[in-house]
């Protein structure tokens, strides 16, 4: 039985990148961004299988130019995403019928460490739902409608959530199906579990586990690769 499954979301358009192609196919040091993300999970000893969620028109490209070209044999299925991230996650979950733990990860976070993945599996087994993240470095203000500072939040109680977000399969698939049936919009998977009544454990991620969103992030990504091999951490 394949116990631990990673769902990699690769169907976003990435309009803020300002490119005509999916940002995940852009290259960092002569390799597609998505290949780094998949390799991190391919190499992890606790991940048994990977489900890749792609836009319908990019399914064949993902298969030939990413999965087969880089020999990612843990990728067992490439499924079509939906119109929203929420629907894409549910499509991926519906393809995971033989696993205990599911890790949901943004394809645009290529610098996820092995420790973060390992901890996601560990804490999902312990608590049923967990996510990695970091404390904000900046002071966070609440701004009112007139543009003035309304209050200052306690930075020690704030947490910038990243992915992977990891769950026992029954926890997250039931949560997603429930919120979809009730037409409740959610911004991430921990919110889905919380709405359904589950407590989510938050554990330490990394400031290098960035999401590639803008052209500036590509330059930062190159610097990250120059300074450490994120796939072996």
Write the layout of secondary structure elements.
Blueprint: E1 4-9, E2 27-28, E3 31-32, H1 33-43, E4 49-54, H2 59-68, E5 75-80, H3 85-94, E6 101-106, H4 114-127, E7 129-134, E8 141-143, E9 149-152, E10 160-168, H5 169-181, H6 189-195, E11 201-204, H7 215-227
Parallel strand pairs: 1-4, 1-6, 4-5, 7-11
Antiparallel strand pairs: 2-3, 6-10, 7-10, 8-9
Helix pairs in contact: 3-5, 5-6
Low-confidence stretches: none
CATH topological fold name: Spore Coat Polysaccharide Biosynthesis Protein SpsA, Chain A
CATH superfamily: Spore Coat Polysaccharide Biosynthesis Protein SpsA, Chain A
Structural class: alpha/beta
Helical residues, percent:
25-40%
Per CATH, the architecture is Alpha-Beta Complex
Proportion of residues in extended strands:
15-25%
* Secondary structure tally: strands: 11
CATH class: Alpha Beta
Average pLDDT number: 92
Largest sheet: 7 strands, mixed
Describe this structure in words.
The chain is α/β, with parallel strands linked by helices. It has a single domain, classed as Alpha-Beta Complex (Spore Coat Polysaccharide Biosynthesis Protein SpsA, Chain A), CATH 3.90.550. Helices cover 33% and strands 23% of the residues. The strands form three sheets. It has a seven-stranded mixed β-sheet with strand order 5-4-1-6-10-7-11, sandwiched between helices. A hairpin with a 2-residue loop joins strand 2 and strand 3. Helix 3 packs across helix 5 and helix 5 crosses helix 6. The protein is globular and about 50 Å long. It starts with a strand and ends in a 6-residue tail after the last helix.
